[in-house]
Write the structure tokens for this entry.
Amino acid sequence: MTQVNENVVEVGAQEPPHPSFIEANTSEVSLSDLKTLCIIPTFGMTNELTLSHQEIAESICAAAVEKFGENNVSDMVFRVSHPISGRTPNAIHKKANELLDNEKTLFYQRIAACLTVKSKSRSLCGEDTDFNVGFIRSYHTTNLYGSKTPEKITLFCGTAVRVCSNLCLTLNGLRDNIECMTGADVYQNASELLDSYQANSEQDMERLEGLSSTRITISQFCRLIGRLRLYQALSTQEQHKLPEILLGDALCNEATRLFVSSRWGLKDGQDSINCFEMLQCFNEACKQSYIHNFLPKNVNCTELCLNVQKVLEGDGENPYSWFLS
């Protein structure tokens, strides 16, 4: 595995990310915090170490450096949630308000991380975009009570709109719940994802670029939102006849608010927006999702908007036509 200097994955002080690529219920931490303030959980039966968050990050960063060069790989930004607090053995009988800092332990059950490949920035639908690589990991998918088993990690790469950090991920840029035992496994899977995505990146960019050529009216968007809400009330059997939708009420509500009043939504005197702007409404709403289901929802938003565009252009045989009927 290619070795990478620690400062490549440290949170940079000169270029703080704003806004974040994911927002809801998360806070930012640095690599040094993960290394010095957080413990590493073990498997209870054998006391073997789990993969640490920092080991996963360093492995992915090493794969990115190998593909694009160290000077092209930005600092990695970390977002965490669900802190798990504990205490050292000598503090077992103390009250919580009596604990000293050195008697407290901490790790984060869920983490999302993202870096930018500077050399692959480009314009998309009139917006500056970056190429991002990252991962999401949650300990709740691992049985920590037994012996050491493969751990599930989700890797992603794809386009992000710079002004709002909205990820526009496609299925080509997602590897969901891959099983890894070591940092070397993470590195290999990250390398394979980057190679695979490179083969389809131009096609993905063309599909995303084409979204700006099709517009959706207020009435059409209202019909789409109504059908997305109706989908959730269908029986499982009925849902299986339609494309899978992962977007719940809260996301639909936020996307509607953004459609009405945001930089991506309706402008004065307009009764429609283009499908790329609609995608940003959905993707920005998606940033309010929990870490563990953020990426599948993001990809689902992209697939929805790409297929809605086809329906608007006259593809009546498209299975997504039900959402505009």
